[in-house]
Amino acid sequence: MVKQSIGYDVKHPEKSCTDAKCPFHGELSVRGTIMNGKVVSAKMQGTVIVERTFMHYVEKFERYRYVKRTYMAHSPPCIGAKEGDVVTIAECRPLSKAVSFVVIEKR
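Structure (tokenized):
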């Protein structure tokens, strides 16, 4: 398989795969939002749950608070994200009812 550029400056995975939903070796294009987060669950087949923590300003109290959000992302076999890994996810077309992100890099 030929390594193709996905349009973002990320490291290409060392391994190769035959997954059609892989942005590097398949036909999936990525666009839009890119986020970093921590994998909190990798129990599903080919899908991981990524948690992202950020600060949100609350006008009423004139303070910041920490907010956690979780995103379901497709994990290609060539990247192989496991629980506890810090990963970069990118937005893509909807892959299922709840999955609209794909893991593009393990940091």
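The chain has no helices and five strands. The beta strands are 30-41, 47-58, 63-74, 86-92, 101-106.
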